[in-house]
């Protein structure tokens, strides 16, 4: 089962909460392959037999869609390079726990407001991974959690776009 080759991306074909994510093979053309490896933050020595990158890491204009008899096929355009969500946190966390120094009781979960999709995308597009993040460990944990949520939301958004495109294509076929 393929898993994404982008450093720290956890997308795999058997992940329950992100279904129908398409994977694309790393090109065999040596020059393009090197560009992909650099984009995925991998060394040239880190080569495997069948590297794949999930669709989350490509812009929507990197794809071309073709209608076949049974379904809409989505192919990656020649020369496309992964550019989206390449700075991912090392681990993912569902809840963040902090020790309350005033209370010797159990750990408490930090609750935060859920940002809008636009805020998440804006946050993801900024390359502030190493720039101005304070040394506060709670903030760093929140930052990593938000980056992971951004990846999930971005994946879901792309899947919805693809489904909408398929729906429109089928609708046009049914009209004719």
UniProtKB/TrEMBL annotation:
This is Uncharacterized protein LOC112462372. GO terms for molecular function: sequence-specific DNA binding; zinc ion binding. The gene is LOC112462372. The keyword Lipoprotein does not apply. Keywords: DNA-binding, Metal-binding, Zinc, Zinc-finger. Residues 1-85 form the THAP-type domain. PANTHER family: THAP DOMAIN-CONTAINING, THAP DOMAIN-CONTAINING PROTEIN 10. InterPro entries: THAP1/10 (IPR026516), THAP_Znf (IPR006612). Coiled coil: none annotated.
């Amino acid at each position: 089962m393929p898993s994404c080759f982008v450093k720290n991306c956890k997308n795999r074909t058997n992940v329950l909460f992100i279904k129908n994510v398409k994977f694309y093979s790393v090109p065999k053309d040596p020059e393009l392959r090197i560009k992909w490896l650099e984009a995925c933050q991998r060394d040239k020595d880190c080569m495997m037999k069948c590297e794949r990158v999930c669709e989350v890491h490509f812009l929507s204009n990197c794809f071309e869609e073709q209608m076949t008899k049974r379904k809409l096929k989505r192919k990656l355009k020649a020369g496309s390079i992964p550019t989206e969500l390449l700075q991912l946190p090392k681990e993912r966390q569902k809840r963040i726990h902090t020790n309350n120094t005033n209370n010797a009781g159990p750990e408490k979960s930090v609750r935060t407001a859920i940002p809008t999709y636009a805020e998440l995308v804006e946050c993801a597009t900024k390359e502030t991974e190493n720039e101005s993040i304070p040394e506060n460990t709670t903030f760093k944990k929140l930052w990593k959690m938000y980056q992971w949520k951004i990846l999930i939301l971005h994946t879901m958004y792309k899947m919805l776009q693809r489904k909408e495109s398929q729906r429109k294509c089928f609708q046009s076929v049914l009209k004719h």
